[in-house]
Specification:
The structure holds two protein chains of two kinds. Chain A is of the alpha+beta class. Chain A is about 70% helix and about 10% strand. In chain A, helix 1 crosses helix 9 and helix 2 packs across helix 9. Chain A folds into two domains: about 190 residues, no CATH class; about 90 residues, Alpha-Beta Plaits (2-Layer Sandwich). By secondary structure, chain B is α/β, with parallel strands linked by helices. In chain B, the strands form two sheets. A six-stranded mixed beta sheet of chain B has the order 6-7-8-3-9-10, with helices on both faces. In chain B, helix 3 packs across helix 4 and helix 4 crosses helix 5. The chains are: A alpha+beta, B alpha/beta. At the A-B interface, helix 8 of A face helix 2 and helix 3 of B. Chain B: InterPro entries: AAA+_ATPase (IPR003593), ABC_transporter-like_ATP-bd (IPR003439), ABC_transporter-like_CS (IPR017871), Cell_div_FtsE (IPR005286), MetN_ABC_transporter-like (IPR050086), P-loop_NTPase (IPR027417). Chain B: Homodimer. Forms a membrane-associated complex with FtsX.
Amino acid sequence: MPKSWSIFMATVKKEKLLSVSNILIMTVTFVLLGLLINIVVFSQTALRYLEDQAQVTVFFKDDFGEDKITFLKGNLAKDKRVSEMVYVSKEDALRIFREINKDEPVLLESVSASILPASLEVRAGNISNLKPLAEELKLLDGVEEVRYFEDVVSRFKFWSTIVYIVGILLVLIFFVISYSVVIAALRTTINSKGVEFEIMKVVGASDDYVKSPLIHQGVFFGLFSSFIASVLMIFLGIGITLTNVFPKGLALGFLPGVFMAPWVFSIILTFILLLSGFLLGYLGSSTAIKKYLNY
Amino acid sequence: MPQIEFINVSKEYDPGKKVLDDVIFKVEPGEFMFVVGPSGAGKSTIIKLLTKEETPEGGDILFNGESIINISKESVPDLRRKIGVIFQDFRLLDSKTVFDNVAVALEVADSSLEEIRSIVPNVLNMVGLTEKMFKYPKQLSGGEKQKVAIARALAHEPDVILADEPTGMIDPDSVDDVLEVLEKINSLGTTVIMATHDQEIVNAMKKRVLRIERGQIISDKKGGKYRA
């Protein structure tokens, strides 16, 4: 073990209460950081799922026959904005209706396939194309009604963006808090060891000899705290994997179309947290040394 | 070749207020020199310039023939291991034993445990503190504390010992002990420069006396006397 590490360990042992409280504050910070990143990713994933589900449902008039609908479907298939189409015939609609209302026999008796409309579910590759598609489909002959749940998707998209922005802001704020915690912790150490550092310098200690234990202290606080937070995030990832909340996996906002297993994301998050811990510890201690040790 | 040479050295902490003004002097190897003068005359500044705690605004300072004005930051620890410093307030660590206080000087130079175990008892023996090796500073008298500081300064076998008012905080009975140790070190070939304004000590020792007032050298006499 390098000498500076043993000096640092001696400091931690000597200032147990201070070290424990610093590690606790930083752990809470990193747990919050991890949770915020998770919330941002979860909301992005939920949006992706909603976008995938978003569709325009076109209900046809009774006199608009299946052959005409098939022809229309063929024409729509050529439209590049359309990614997928599902034809729901009157019989399919009845089957779905029966499935949904299987516990209400009176209602089922009064409904037949003839009174239910045939429909076409149209999905777009890009959610922003749904609205113009819906407007165009409304104008076609034989179309009774076009349903498009624009509000739900756009509202979720709005809130998801808010979560994203607030999340990033909070993450930045927590970074600043962690940075200040490291500086405050080392300031205490530097103040309590001021005379010792002065003596060390006078008797010929190199700058590195004086600085290394402090840098190690900052890095240790950062890494240890982020490690604890990482373990908690891994458990969260395992829990999400086991409960299958996101069957397709988690979506990353900046990588469209990419889904990954929650446990894989937890491992990536672990690296992010550990790297953040290291950088915060290193930069925080370097700043504290510069500020309070006149280096 | 002189061991220490101040060539037209000027130093000011505040613009326009010179603490040292065009100071010139040389110190030969093995010399014992007093730097005397009233408080604020510039005695401590000379010591700080030699240990590179401060840098002059003008002139040059040579140590063993080489300028220390522009030496790199990395070279400063080496310089400080060649120059041992003793302070008026001892600057000992109360939480460490006498042995550990001296060992600090060797630890910072990455000396091995064997070296520390061999050197520390030797220097403590030289200053007559072998029996107090495992005592804490609070268990020592002022004179003994200063001897620990001398032992720490000696640990690197420095070429020069700089003593900044070393008798200022010790009882009169211990002053002679400390001076005796400094003389002994000097007799073994180490240069000693002692800043003081205690005329009794200076006059009793009959060494070279460099008198400084308001940042300027007033007199420089071998076997000189000093009247405050």
